Amino acid sequence: MKTQRMFIDTTNFTNMKFGNFLTQNSDLKISMVIDDDGDFPTPASSDSANSRPSSDGSPPVFSPWNQTYPRTKSPCFTEFKNGDVYRSNSNYKNSSLIGSLVREEGHVYSLATAGELLYTGSDSKNIRVWKNLKEFTGFKSSSGLVKAIIISGEKIFTGHQDGKIRVWKETPKNPSGGYRRDGTLPALRDVLRSSINPQNYVVVGRNRSRLWFKHADAVSCLCLSDDKTILYSSSWDKTMKVWRISDSKCLESLTVHDDAVNVIVAASDGLVITGSADGTAKVWRRQHEEENDATKHTLEQTLVKQNSAVTAVAVNAAGTVVYCGSSDGLVNFWEREKRLTYGGALKGHNLAVLCLATAGNCMVLSGAADNTICVWRRDGLFHTCVSVLTGHTGPVKCLAVKGDPCRRSKDGGRRWIVYSGSLDRSVKVWGVSDSLGG
């Protein structure tokens, strides 16, 4: 089926198509000109829209939740009470709004935490750094809204709408906190070295080719391998690229889906999970070749094939449960023993799920285009929506979770700090506990 991408002004919150689902997400719609450094050849008259994969439309194939699963406990909430926290479980009293971070400069698309610091990325191209609920410092890229942030030691990687991955490092001599640009992936030396060999180019559109290790469209997501040595990037160009952090070298590039890749998550035991606008979520296994220090990824399992785009993926801390959010508002999950097996669907949203985050092994949070965040607790084979966090006036686009070292709940449960970024240009900070006590 031939698909087309829709381009809409970001300022109007006009309905956007996510797979085959119409929602108020303004993520998949910004027209841009990709930097053509290293392209071969690049005709001035080439149609850049033809080189981008579509994010609309997915083939009408089966959905795993068309049947009834006895292990699914998924209350659906269609009405929310006024205020910031609506608790579906009357015994659950450990969710609270701590504060809001607002800087009127753009929709918030990405979040990352490191110690006391929170990093936020927006369509203003700025990366803001917050400490103790106050703005601490920040830095700005030259182009491309910030769609993803990942932190690896002293390095900060940011993925952008212009298809680039930028690398930043903290400036230690700046007492007030400062950051400098430390490079770009791929590294300039690799671009120059490879650009003279025509065999290093792949076709990405009509009359258009590109170095195989450069993304041809927006970088949608970044993640780190379990051993923190590999950086994975996914893109609307349908590919997953594998980067070695130590020398910034691209080890592998795979076309992993038939449409834009929306999310990528690395789990334990060398597993990598990708989700796409083509309605599929796939599991890849990393194989390391010690002889030549190479890496290779092979498809191990396709979790789901459906009409609705896969928009978010998360894995619990133990790597035993995988969650996939979709543009139909459902969160499907799989439990892992020797192989991932389907466990059921969590139904707490009436619009597209845009982000997921796990807290430990028994909590998962889902943010959606309905402006809410559902807090789910897993008890054995069942999930229960114990709280719905409200207060955002725009779609919840990203979530980040970290443990709260200062507080524990009364019955000894663990407390978590949850950050939620929204297209209402704000970040809200929540306190959530994984226990049911008061």
TrEMBL record:
Q: Which CDD domains match?
A: WD40
Keyword annotations: Repeat, WD repeat
Please list where the region (Disordered) is annotated: 39-69
WD repeat residue intervals:
212-253, 254-284, 303-335, 346-376
* Keyword Cell membrane recorded: no
List, alphabetically, the InterPro entries matched: JINGUBANG-like, WD40/YVTN_repeat-like_dom_sf, WD40_PAC1, WD40_repeat_dom_sf, WD40_rpt
Q: What is this protein called?
A: Protein JINGUBANG-like
Does Repeat count among this protein's keywords?
yes
Amino acid composition bias (Low complexity), ranges on this chain: 43-59
What is the superkingdom listed in this entry's lineage?
A: Eukaryota
